[in-house]
Structures are given as structure tokens and as C-alpha cells.
Amino acid sequence: MAQVGIGTTQPETDLHIAGSTLIQDEFETNQLGSTNNNDVDFKLITRLTNSTPVGEINRLNVDNLTVAPINIKKYRFYNLVGDNLEDIDISFEADRYLIAISNFRYIGDPIAKQAVQNHNRPTMGNFITRVFTAPSLTGSGVETWHLQIQNTFLDPDPDTEIEYEITLIIYDRSYYRALPPIQTNLGGSNTGSVAAPNIK
Predict the structure, then answer these.
(1) 58 lies in which domain range?
(2) How does DSSP classify residue 10?
(3) What is the tens place of the pLDDT at every residue in 45-88?
(4) Rounded to the nearest 5°, which phi and psi values hold at 63?
(5) Cβ–Cβ under 8 Å, residues 176 and 110
(6) pTM over 0.70
(7) CA-CA-CA-CA torsion sign (99, 125, 88, 110)
(8) Cys-Cys link to 169, which of 28, 94, 100, 123 (CB 3.0-4.6 A)?
(9) Which candidate, 17, 95, 97, 30, places its Cα nearest to that of 56?
């Protein structure tokens, strides 16, 4: 019926640990309390797999986070010269975040098909929407995420007004990790299969 204190002579709960905690195997509990939409004063307990030794228990202080695990940010670009956004530094640090594109929208006159160099028939060009990492354009030397929206073959009439709307999904690397790329040689075929990623 007693309370147990480790590192303290005055435990305030069933098990009170004053100091760091290390769990190297399994951590089991019968029941944990749940949170709801109205709960604001809580902390997340995590088990670190990159500590030495592995298994350090740490507290993630959500009060100090500037972003949530998953964030959605909408961008609108207008008053463009042509249609090419070659390199827009969106300033999210590459070692802290993962970025994905969703809901791209092209607003303006349609792109007319026309013949271009090295193509045998009229084309609408090759439209690219992508995010990539590169040194920040601010000159800080930090790797940040950049955005490219570009038609690599065709440019519209310079007097044409074009707008882009795009939604970026921003993942905090504290919760998510990037899986390694998968390369597959299709041997000249249009069909095939790829191996499932090795997720541990």
C-alpha cells in the first residue's frame, strides 16, 4: 500500500522517480488515461531509441513546439512573370521537417498545345511540381525545403495572368522519418513490381 520513491524520500504517487529513467526491454501498463479535445495541459512520454544505452524515457514538452506532428499550410502565388517558379525557399529546416505536396491548382489561361524542340507532335509541355532540399537562399548555410512549379518546355504569353495554389503537408521529424529511396530496373517494360520498404 506504500508509495515508492526513487531519488526522492517524499514520493507523491505510486511510483515517483526523481531523475532519468531507462527502459531497455518492454514497458507494460494496464491502463493509461486518455486525453480529449479540451485537454491542453499534458506532456507526452517517449522512449528514445537513439540514447546510450537505448531506452531512455524522455518527456516531449508540447508547450515548446511551434508545430504539431502534422501541419497543413496553403500557399498562393500570383503576379508571376511567365509560369515558372524555379526555386522558392519555403524556409522549413530539412533536418526538422518532411514536406509533401497536396492539392495543386493552376489558375489562368489554358496551356495551348504546340510543337517544341525534340518533339514530333504538339505537346502541353512537361509540368513539374516538387519539393526538394537545398541550402537556404538566405545565405545561412542551413538546408531548407524548396518548392518548384514549372513547365519545362512551354511558357505562356507574358501578358497572361497565372496563379498557383498549393497545399503543403509538413511532418515533424520528431514523429516521422523518411524511408530510403527504392530503385527498380524494369528492364524496358511498362509493368512490374517493387519490393516493400524495410520498415523497422
Answers:
(1) 1-26+42-64
(2) S
(3) 777 777 888 888 877 766 666 667 888 999 999 888 777 888 99
(4) -65, -25
(5) no
(6) no
(7) negative
(8) 100
(9) 17
Instruction: Let me know whether 75 and 91 are in one domain.
Output: yes
Nine cell digits for residue 102 = 497536396
Count: domains in the chain: 2
Phi and psi (nearest 5°) for 51? -85, 165
Same domain for 56 and 79? no
Cell numbers given for 15: 511510483
Kind of pairing, strands 15-17 and 4-6? parallel
- The predicted-structure confidence for 86-120, as pLDDT tens digits, reads as follows 899 999 999 999 999 999 998 877 666 666 666 66
Rounded distance, CA 111 to CA 114, Å?
9
- Residue 91: CB atoms within 10 A of its CB come to 13
Examine residue 197 and state whether it is found in any structural domain, yes or no. no
DSSP string covering 86-112, please? EEEEEEEETTTEEEEEEEEEEESSPPP
C-alpha cell at 158: 507574358
pLDDT band of 158, cuts 50, 70, 90: low
Determine, yes or no, domain membership for 36.
no
